[in-house]
Amino acid sequence: MPQHLSPVATCIQPDHFYPNGCTTERQCETGMPLHPAQDPYATRGIPVFRPSMEEFQDFEAYMEKVQVWGARSGIVKIIPPPEWYCRAKVAFLTY
Fold first, then answer.
1. Dmax of the chain from CA atoms?
2. pTM of the prediction?
3. Cα(27)–Cα(36) distance, integer angstroms
4. Which sequence spans correspond to the domains of the chain?
5. Do 36 and 68 form a contact (C-beta atoms < 8 A)?
6. What does the pLDDT profile of the chain (95 residues) look like in tens digits?
7. 33, 13 in Cβ contact below 8 A?
8. Phi, psi (degrees; rounded to nearest 5) at 77
């Protein structure tokens, strides 16, 4: 695998693909997550990501990891962690 396609360094795996709900249980023989360029099923639908609050804190860094899937499918969906909704609601209500 070329270094620029290192699966761990450049991307993360989607939680599932919309609308069919397929998960990303498929991994390569090494047990490492697949890069979308090596995943023949990468076009199953829209990749949906569910970051943890820790991952979501640095949204730009998270988007850089997700970008490879967006480049492959044309779009991605990111569902913010539940804690983020609480913060947004409190900020809205106190504004």
1. 52
2. 0.68
3. 11
4. 3-94
5. yes
6. 444 444 444 568 888 888 765 665 554 445 566 777 776 666 778 889 999 999 999 999 999 999 988 888 889 999 999 888 766 566 666 65
7. yes
8. -120, 130
